Amino acid sequence: MKPEDVIPTYDREGPAWAATRDRRLIERPWLDRALMLAPHGRGRRRVLDLGCGAGRPIAEYLIDRGCMVTGVDASRPMIELFARVVPRAVALHADMRTLRLSDTFDLILAWDSLFHLPPEDQRAMFGIFSSHAAPGGVLLFTAGPEVGERIGVIGGSSLYHASLDPTDYRALLDDWSFEELGYWPEEPACGNRTIWMARRR
């Protein structure tokens, strides 16, 4: 299983996986904290959801909280599902690694998506996060707890994951003018995800 197989795997397995995805929103405490900290000087908070998948439950929840959501996904079947599930959001079929939008956002999510990129692409993403973050904008992403590559499973297919070392993520945040707000390694209340939260200086 290679990193370049991730998008075709989601094309093939993603819609069936989305239909069975846990919708209890165990992510809510981190989403609520990020929303509380995110600026909203332009009125409704503007959210960029990178690797948005089918939009349920996270984008649905953000829309219900009054946010303006832009979802980005490189899998066409997944972004088409997103457009149907959250029709009030903006749906963009694009690869997050080449994203160049003309707007900035109060909250940027890379939840369960950044870790599908190989390490060198993850490092490059911090420049993209920075260029799309409004002043004071919050970045919320998940990663692995330690450096390395892992192979997971979605449906009947293998799925690539990778992580940098936490010291590398901290250095990248600092290099791209983000202040660390929180780090929760292998958080048991959120399915053992490793969660990072930062704010654009």
Automatic annotation (TrEMBL):
CDD domains: AdoMet_MTases. GO terms for biological process: methylation. Residues 47-137 form the Methyltransferase domain. The keyword Methyltransferase applies. Keywords: Methyltransferase, Transferase. One of its GO terms (molecular function) is methyltransferase activity. PANTHER family: METHYLTRANSFERASE, METHYLTRANSFERASE DOMAIN-CONTAINING PROTEIN. This is Class I SAM-dependent methyltransferase. It comes from Rubellimicrobium aerolatum.
